[in-house]
Amino acid sequence: MDSKVQGAVSPERAAYLRSRERRRRRVRAWQWGLLVFLVALWELLAWLGVIDSFILSQPSRIWRTWASLLESGELWLHLWVTVYETLAGFLLGAVLGVGLAILLWWSSFVAKVSEPYLVVLNSLPKIALGPVIIILVGAGTEAIVFMALAISLIVTVLEMLGGFRRTDPDAIRMAKTFGATKGQIFCKIVLPSNVGTLFGSLKINIGLSLVGVIAGEFLVSKAGLGYLIVYGGQVFKLDLVMASVIILSAVAALMYQGVVFLQRLVMGHQL
User: Fold this and answer.
1) Residue 3 DSSP SS3
2) Among residues 100, 104, 150, which one has the least CA distance to residue 124?
3) Any long-range contacts for 176-182 (C-beta under 8 Å, 24+ apart)?
4) How does DSSP classify residue 108?
């Protein structure tokens, strides 16, 4: 009886949920409708000659480029290379970034010494270090992954350290009065309070890692979506450039949604 009462939904609540669902469907319909409209407009303007299809391409030409890449098997090769390099840099950045943030939270002295260097490194354009990175780690996948790591690492450190420092000070003081050690405070209070901060950082860093990978592939690569973009530009195959950019956009969106899905699995009850 009690479970039925608890599970019951008031008419007002049910009406609100239906309204929210209708709004969500309406937003999704408009999103897809706008996409279809823009693609159709792009094709029409190119067909009429209003825009130069050689420079800006057009959907039908991009579709034929995709079909050619799929038929030759090149698409999956280049896609896999970019995804692998992005995930490698992303995971390394997340693990090392959280580890360094824990170290800086643990030692306020180390944090104060390191803070100005972190700020400088965060503002430094990492692409400027491309030649140095290539010399240090070699002209290959390692350099590309290192570029992705360099871009995402400092952001993770700063985001997580800021979250650790914003943890409820009253809860920490109370734990200290009961004799909790610093490790216990971190594991029981600080870390659980910053799961949302962690996933916020991951959402930012998955995109930054992809940016780092593409920048690395621009400099040194023999495969990957960045390589296709550079190659297409060099030989004036701009259909290939546009096709690769659209695939890259889809990859970025799917990776972001993957992080969102993981967040729902881990902390769905809080969302």
Assistant:
1) helix
2) 150
3) 182/106
4) H
Give phi and psi for 110, each to the nearest 5. -60, -40
> Which residue, 179, 206, 198, is CA-closest to 102?
198
CB atoms within 10 A of CB 205: 25
Distance CA 229, CA 260 (A): 28
Asked if 259 contacts 205 with a C-beta cutoff of 8 angstroms, the reply is: no
Residue 74: other Cβ atoms inside 10 A: 13
Residue 231 CA to residue 233 CA, distance in Å, equals 5
Per-residue pLDDT tens, the chain, 271 aa: give them: 444 444 556 787 788 778 888 888 888 899 889 989 998 998 898 888 888 777 777 888 888 888 888 888 788 888 898 999 899 989 998 999 999 999 998 888 888 888 888 888 888 777 777 777 777 777 778 888 888 888 888 888 888 888 888 888 888 888 888 888 888 888 888 888 888 888 988 888 888 888 888 888 888 778 888 888 888 888 788 888 888 888 888 889 999 999 889 888 887 755 5
Encode burial over 245-256: b for 16+ CB neighbours within 10 A, e otherwise. bebbeebbeebb
Backbone angles phi, psi at 104, to 5 degrees: -70, -35
Tokens found for residue 88: 């490698």
> CA–CA separation, 265 vs 52, rounded Å?
46
Cβ(266)–Cβ(199) under 8 Å?
yes
Amino acid making up residue 6 = Q
Which residue type is seen at 67? Answer: A
Residue that the structure tokens 């999956």 belong to: 76
